[in-house]
Every structure is written in C-alpha cells, then in structure tokens.
Fold each of these.
Amino acid sequence: MGSVGVLLLNLGGPDKLEDVGPFLYNLFSDPEIIRLPFRWMQKPLAWLIATRRTKTSQANYKYIGGGSPLRRITEEQGEALKAQLGNLGKEANIYVGMRYWHPYTEEAIAQLTQDNIDKLVILPLYPQFSISTSGSSFRLLEQLWQQNPKLQRLEYTVIPSWYKQPGYLQAMAELIREQLNQFPNPDGVHIFFSAHGVPKSYVEEAGDPYQQEIEECTQLIMQTLNRPNPHVLAYQSRVGPVEWLQPYTEDALKELGAQGVKDLVVVPISFVSEHIETLQEIDIEYREIAEEAGIHNFRRAAAPNTHPVFIQALADLVIDSLTKPNLKLSQVTQMKKKVKMYPQERWEWGLTTSAEVWNGRIAMLGFIALIIELITGQGLLHLIGLL
Ligand SMILES: C=CC1=C(C)c2cc3[nH]c(cc4nc(cc5[nH]c(cc1n2)c(C)c5CCC(=O)O)C(CCC(=O)O)=C4C)c(C)c3C=C
Ligand SMILES: [Fe+2]
Ligand SMILES: [Fe+2]
C-alpha cells in the first residue's frame, strides 16, 4: 500500500474570546445539535441563541485562559500518533478536521486531496458514537464526498466508535489509578464517571447508541481497573429546555454528599482531551457543588490527551482498520430507529407524512412564540436562559 492519511475528527473550540460567538453560531446551526421542523428556521434561531449565550460562555472560557485548548491538544495528539505509527513502521499523514471551528473539516479535506494519499482512515476522537458528535461529522463528510469526484475515487475506511479498544481502557484505568493512589484509603474512594449528556429523545426516539456505549464503556473501564471501589455514572453539560439523559451530574453529586461520601474521583469519559467541560465545568462548578454537599476530597482524572498508552491505542486502531474490510460513511450514518410512541409521534429523519403533520403544527406554534418573544422580550427561551 502507498501513503496513508488519518483524518482526526473533533468538535473544535474557540481559540480566543472573540471566537466564542461565531463558534456558538456554527454549533447551533447544526441540525444534529438542534433539530427544527423547517430548515429556514435553523440559521435565525442559531444566531439568536448564540448571541444570547455568548456572554455566559465567554465568562466560562475566561476561567480557562480565554480560549479552548482543544486545537492545541488535538494537534499534539496528531503529532504523537504520527510518531507512534512511524515507530511501528507505518508512515502516515495526519489531518485534523474540526466540526465547528478551525481547522475546519473542509480545510482538512482540501489539504488531504492535494496530498494524493492512497488510503484514508477516518478516526473520530470520540470513543463513543453519538448523532450529535461523530454522527454530525460523518454527515458533513458524506456531503463533501457527494460534491467532490476526487474524494469519490479515494479509498477510505471509517472507525465509528472505539470505546472497547483495550489500550484506551488501559489508559483510562491508569489515569484513574493515579488519582485513587493520592488518597490514604484508595479502595474506599467513590469513582464518579461523568459523561457528556445528550437529549433523551436522541436515544429513545432517534436510536442514538450513545447511552448504551457509555454504560458499556464504564463497565469495561471498571473491569480493566480491577479495584473494589464503588462507582456511579451521571451526565453533565445539559443545554436548553428538553430532558437530557439522567441522572444529571449535579444531582448525583448532591445525592452522594447526602449519603456521607467524602472522597471522590471524577472521570470524564466522553472526550479524550481537556476542554471547557473538564477545566471549567468539572474543576470549578461541580467541585463547588460537591464541596457544598460535603464531598471535601474531590479529585479528577486527567483526560487521556497525549498519554503514551492512549497514543499507542490510537495507533493500534489505525493499523487494525487497515487490515479490516472498509467501512463506508453511508454505513455509519444510518440510524437504527427505535419506536417508542405512537407512529405519528415518533422521531423521523427526512420528510414523511407523520413528520410533516408534526412539522406543520410545531413550526406554526414555535414561530408565533418566537415572534412574540422577540417583540416582548419575555417567553420560554428567556426563561431557560437561551435568549
Ligand atoms: C462527547 C462529547 C460531546 C457531546 C455528546 C456533545 C453534545 C452536545 N453539546 C451541546 C452544546 C454545546 N457544546 C459545547 C461545547 C463542546 N461540547 C463538546 C463535547 C460534546 N458535546 C466539546 C468538546 C465542546 C467544546 C469545548 C471547548 O473546550 O471549547 C458548547 C459551547 C460551550 C458552552 O457554551 O457551554 C455548547 C453550547 C449540545 C446541545 C449537545 C447535544 C445535542
Ligand atoms: Fe457545556
Ligand atoms: Fe457539547
């Protein structure tokens, strides 16, 4: 085989405070993040929500030095992966493609089509699959593929999720062990897995495998760790009015505090780099909640970042994928639909009769409510802090 390319997919984050508004606008413009009945509503609503959220979000980014470290860490992971693949005798070009900020996925694709690589491995830096993360990047790539005949001639394979990869589990176990060993009685410490949340409807109506993959991943990390500690799993970072996966991290912390738990190690599990939700949300907000609840010894496991065991795991993933049959984007963007409610109420991708009925009703009500809210400055979106 000739030259190999590895495309690392990630979410992206604002590099500086001025980037926060446009970054949020890009994020809320994505129908995989906010699903609206009509496409034309997406951009105006994204602009409104982003504009109103910018100040709060900027204040959070200020706490972590005025910008996200995501680009720097992802690029460092790319360099370390390149070096490790080289050590294993596999030369590869690494490309970083972010979904909502620089370097955008489109920029990575433009570069890799110039480099004339022979085979591309598409590796999302999310261990577990969600419609809102890897799924969104895969859909974008599918569109780019449709528009570009050069890409259509390129041999590629996708790694949809990789939370079972033994090296990844080893790296997570090692990072947890490091924190447990700081306590006088390591075996008595509670391990608190905090996963990024998603709206409950993603799982129950759209068939997002995210919750199941998170739960299985938690079990596998505990098995790999092989320690007797009690553990819990909760979901953080809820945004907007709808119900998200439960229990919420803040509630679970309060409950553990009420049970008399004093020693805790929090483990972020949906993401492999430090970012605002580890450095600000866990380290500052959740630490404060835990402290108030009486959990006085609060530590957090570091994200894998460029931990050598983790980088080795990424290299193994790439090498394994080159020996397996190729997986196409069209194979990983098909959702398994689970039907929970009446047929006319179920989540539908695309234009169907039942979707149209609900689209019409919701769009009319939503649009009227939005206009009233914009004129009066009062309403649901203000109430929940989105406007
Ligand atoms: C696996 C990880 C993530 C999932 C799942 C996810 C879903 C999701 N996120 C939002 C809304 C926001 N996310 C924001 C930033 C952000 N989110 C993730 C990861 C996941 N998101 C990352 C890595 C980042 C970037 C962090 C950085 O360091 O810059 C933000 C902006 C920050 C803020 O204002 O809080 C929002 C908003 C939704 C709605 C969602 C699922 C539908
Ligand atoms: Fe958040
Ligand atoms: Fe997010």
Amino acid sequence: MTISGEMLIGASALRGSEREIRAVNPATGEKMEPGYAGGGAAEVDRACALAAEAFDSYRETTPEQRAGFLEACAQAIMDIGDELIERACAESGLPRGRVEGERGRTVGQLRLFAGVVREGSWLEARIDPAMPERQPLPRSDLRQRHIALGPVAVFGASNFPLAFSVGGGDTASAFAAGCPVVVKAHSAHPGTSELVGRAIQSAVRTCGLHEGVFSMLFGSGGTVGSALVADPRIKAVGFTGSRSGGTALMKIAANRPEPIPVHAEMSSINPVFLLPGAMARRAEGIGKGFVGSLTMGAGQFCTNPGLVLGVEGAQLDAFLSSAKAALEASGAQTMLTPGIYDAYTQGVSRLANNNRVETVAQGQTGPGPYQGRPALFTTTAAHFAEDETLLEEVFGASSLVVRCPDVQTMLAVAERLEGQLTATIQMEPDDLEMARQLVPVLERKVGRILVNGYPTGVEVGHAMVHGGPYPSTSDSRTTSVGSLAIRRFLRPVCYQDFPQELLPEALRDGNPLGLWRRTDGQLGRN
Ligand SMILES: NC(=O)C1=CN([C@@H]2O[C@H](COP(=O)(O)OP(=O)(O)OC[C@H]3O[C@@H](n4cnc5c(N)ncnc54)[C@H](O)[C@@H]3O)[C@@H](O)[C@H]2O)C=CC1
Ligand SMILES: O=C(O)CCC(=O)C(=O)O
C-alpha cells in the first residue's frame, strides 16, 4: 500500500492545508516521509456531515452485515502485511515482537466485536406485553432496545499505535454499536494511521456501506481535535492519553449546547500492595516480577505499576534489593516520541530532586537520542502524605515505593488515592484478613483488582474492565477494553404500542433474530 500523506474523508483522500507534520523515528531522531498537512474546519465539517448522513443506514445494518464489516476491517489490516509492522516500529520505537502482538490484539478485538454483534445481547431487548384488562388502568405494550448514539470522535493514542489507535478498541466498539467514526489521528504515528485508515476505508467500500461510516483527520488537537468534539453532529468521544488532553475534551463536550459523553482514559499510577505473608515467602521474586512489569514497553502503559506499598522491615529491604538488581540490569529503551521522553526525564528528575524521596536505582543509559532509563524511588508513608505531587503519574518506567510502618497505614494510604485503572495485591492465604479490609477500599477506587499478578497487559475479553473512577477515566461506569466497551456508545429507546410492522426486528413477536430477550421480566429466547 502506498502512503501519501493524505487524510481520508469518506471515500476520498485529500491533503490538508494546515501546518505539515512528519513522524519522527524516535530510535534515530530522523524525520520520516511523507509530510502530513493538518486539516481544518472545512475537513472537520465534511467528515462530520458524511458521518451524520451515514448514521441511519449504518445503525440499521443487520447483525450479519455489521459483523461482516468488522471482520473485513480485521482482514484488511492483516492484508497490509509487513509494511504496517515496519512503519509502526519506525514511528513508535517499539520492537517488532510487541508491534506484531499488538496487531494480533487489534484484529482479535475487531473479531471479538463481530461475535458480540451477532450474539445480540447488547441490544438488551425487553418486552412488557400489553395488559388491556389490568385494573385500575390497562398497561400499554412497551418494548425496549438499545440503539447507537450517533457519530463518534475517536482520538488515537500514542502508546498503542494499533490497538488503541485508528482501528483500535474505541473504533471497534463504536462500529459494533452502529456508530460512524471520525478519527483524529495521533501525530506520533501518521503513516501507521494512514495505512490502517486506508484498510478500513477499503472495508467500508467492499461491504457496500455509506462512505461516511469512517473518516480520519490529521492536525493539531487544539484545532481539529477541539472542532471535532464541538461539532453538533458528533454524539460521543473516545480518547486515551494525558489527563490535560482528556479533561480539555471533557470541558468542550460539557459546554456544547448539547453536551455529550466523553470516554477518556487518562492517568493512573496502579498501586501494588505487598502484604506481609506474601513478602515473607516471595519478597525477592516479587521484586523481580515487578521490575518486569515496570519496564515492559519502556513503561509506556497506563497500567504501569507506578506506586508500591509495603511494610517497613527486612522483607521490604529484600524486595528493594531484588528490584534494584533487576532494574540496574535493565537497558534504556526508546520512548515513543521526543515529547514523551522529555516529560519522562523531567518527571524522573523531579522525583530524584525531591528531598522527601530517595533514589533506589536507575537503569542503564543507552546510545539512542530518546531512550528512557527505568528508575525506582522510595519514600516513607509520612512523606507521601505530605506531598501531593507524589501522587502524579510519571509516564514511563518509573515507580515509587512507599514504606509504611504497618498494614493499617497501607490502608490509610489506599484511602488517599485517586481513581485508578488497576490495583494489585500480592498475598498468601495468611493475608486474607488484611485483603478483606483492603478490597472494599480498592473497589471504590479502581476498575480492576488483581491478585498475585502484575497490572500491565490487559486481556481483551468479556469480563475485562479497563476503566475506573476519575482521573483514571472520565466515566467510571464502563470500560474501554473488552466487549462491554460497546455500552459506551448505546442508549435505550422504548416503543409504546407499536404495530408489529413498525417495530425493529429485534422486538417483533416470534423473535425473528433469535435474541435473548427479557419478556415480562423473564430472560429467555422467546
Ligand atoms: N495514561 C495513559 O494511558 C497515557 C498517558 N499519556 C501522557 O500524555 C503525555 C503526552 O502524550 P500524548 O499521547 O501525546 O497525549 P495527549 O493527551 O497530549 O494527546 C492525545 C491526543 O489528544 C489530542 N489533544 C491533546 N490535548 C488536546 C486539547 N487540549 N484539545 C484537543 N485535543 C487535544 C492530541 O492532539 C492527541 O491527538 C505523555 O507524556 C503522558 O504523560 C500518553 C499516552 C497514554
Ligand atoms: O496494559 C495494557 O495492555 C493496555 C494499557 C493501556 O490501555 C494503555 O497504556 O493505554
């Protein structure tokens, strides 16, 4: 496939007229061809107009048509072949194995949603049959299903150029719900975005869908991104990135004449609780496993374990020395962009220069221009309580170990935490009592609680929650990964006393789609 530096608006490809950007290969610092000129108000308007035009026909595609489209997107992404892997590696600095794995996750996600669409329980069909004889008043015939919200603006994330970007989870779940998508591509990987965007554009064409089902724009957040979220034809937003970016979009969405939901996945420090029984048996092993999770992908995961809590003493010392040894043996890794590298090195030096914090270890330096060295710090629970800045995410392979005088202090620290995507408990059976006290606190704070694992590496499945209270996300009621993500882009509609011929198929007598439906309160296939 040839990449040309063009945006994709419906079935066309065109060059923008705003400032041009080029991807930077973060391994070498070199700028890459082609240049990508940004779009402006005219392109946002055209993409949104087409998306609005496409909405009614796309949301009423049959489950089979829509599932077929999701599968066609997956196949078209695979068909790009090695060019996609090479371009994504060059634009992100991520190693080949990781990018290949991420492609598998991306197409797996699209196929998962194809299955979800066919299975149909997302429609949540409900029927309360009429009760004409009911006293004192008769009951009408009431039928409910969920429909798509409308065109969705999706912001590609820098740290997952495939799985959280143009054809990633936000796009897959919005398409599955029946929403057209307008992507604002991330400037860190425009070539990867164009390749995936063209694959989706070709799937729209081969499936015979309205061209407005998919568009993709380049340009700055302040112009294209803001204009998209403000456009009255956009009805929801999916975003993964910084807290400042996510909250800016939340404000724009809330200040519209018609406010809309923003599903922003933002910052998280993912606390790890080291309970005494686990530390008595496995302190060194936990130290090693923790560093593996911390340094994975240069730490550029929103699930990265940025905070560890343990009880002061010999076992915590054993954990720290094992983590120190593992970390000092870790090489520096190329980070995604010069900007992310700068933000990381500034965050690490803020910690290193904080007189409430001690440096435990730093990883090796590397020859590349944007290679981040992993870093581990420690502080006391008393110092941690005094300094709000220690709660801030340092995006990259940096973590802070809080030494607590006892387990009750660990609980008190847990109470102080902001909303998180994940929390991890390292425990053994004799820690059960403490874990029982911790879990209710964590349930209030986080979206996913893990036992004896590490938080990086989110499984894409039906039971996954990749979400959590603010500021980890802007809306804790859902998830951005897994099949439940479809809920973000749906709303219920009730049809009262409709004639059969006017009802959507999902709600007709005889259950022509063979759905699970709740009829008079009873769930069944009738
Ligand atoms: N927690 C997480 O999952 C992630 C956190 N980050 C954090 O974000 C920093 C910057 O990384 P980026 O990926 O570039 O994230 P970012 O939040 O700066 O940008 C993400 C997207 O949002 C757009 N955007 C940002 N601010 C906007 C605004 N005010 N109005 C409209 N659109 C806006 C950008 O143009 C881009 O397309 C990192 O150094 C890191 O601290 C980045 C990636 C993931
Ligand atoms: O840990 C993962 O696999 C996903 C992390 C993630 O969602 C992110 O970093 O944005």
